[in-house]
Specification:
alpha/beta; elongated; single chain
Length: about 150
């Protein structure tokens, strides 16, 4: 093996034209970069969002809103849904596993019980959060609530 036998690995080169290798190649001189400016210089990298000196779009648009980093997203489940589950599955205790079996959550999401609808069954309900009206309604029919952490 000699230096004149060496070739690049298959797929490592992408172009057959050798740009910037003198006038004999036909691609010398400015080497397809045009005349002057940042793009003609070596090491030039375009910034994301750069618009040629014009004020970029992300700076022209107004900023608004607030993103709370401590926000928790809950799956909302109403009392009427709990009533249907208790009748369908004939259970007295409803937790995350029962809600998962009913297809309402995947088991990893946070669940909040809301007070919409009516509840007649005496239930033990386990969830991550309860609304005030839901808690009162569950306890009014003799059930109890447990908060999961």
């Amino acid at each position: 093996m000699k230096l004149n036998n060496l070739t690049p690995a298959e797929g490592s080169t992408h172009s057959t034209r050798r740009i910037g290798r003198g006038p004999g190649s036909g691609l010398g001189g400015t080497s397809t970069r045009g005349h002057k400016g940042a793009k003609a210089r070596s090491g030039y990298k375009r910034k994301i969002g750069f618009e040629g000196g014009q004020m970029p779009l992300q700076r022209r648009l107004p900023k608004f809103g607030f993103k709370n980093i401590n926000h928790k997203e809950y799956i909302a489940i109403n009392l009427s849904t709990l009533q249907k589950i208790s009748e369908k599955q004939n259970v007295a205790k409803i937790g995350i596993e029962e809600l998962k079996a009913a297809g309402l959550t995947n088991g990893k999401e946070l669940v909040k019980i809301l007070g919409n609808g009516s509840l007649t069954a005496k239930l033990q309900v386990e969830a991550h959060a309860f609304s005030k009206t839901a808690k009162e309604a569950i306890e009014a029919v003799g059930g109890n609530t447990t908060i999961i952490k």
